[in-house]
Amino acid sequence: MSRRRANGKHRAKRPATAAERLAKAYVCGDCGATSDRVTVDEYGLNHVHVIHADSCPVLSGAVADIGDVFRAATRAGVAMLAVKVADGGASDE
Asked: What is the pLDDT of residues 39-50, one digit of tens each?
């Protein structure tokens, strides 16, 4: 069954319960930012929105947030899988 409406647009989809639980359990270990907002994109992927402080090292990319994500998943009882993607770098040659 298609998730598209007769007008060709995707139907709005509610965020997954697990994503909502993870968002409510998330706390940034550096600036204390929290999240309670989850959106679903046109492909059905859940996005947890976190508003970090301007001075937060997670926001600038100096520190990864994966530890905070795993702690939130543990508190929320959400199963997580981490996959490391090697950056081979693209070449124009």
From this structure: 998 888 899 999
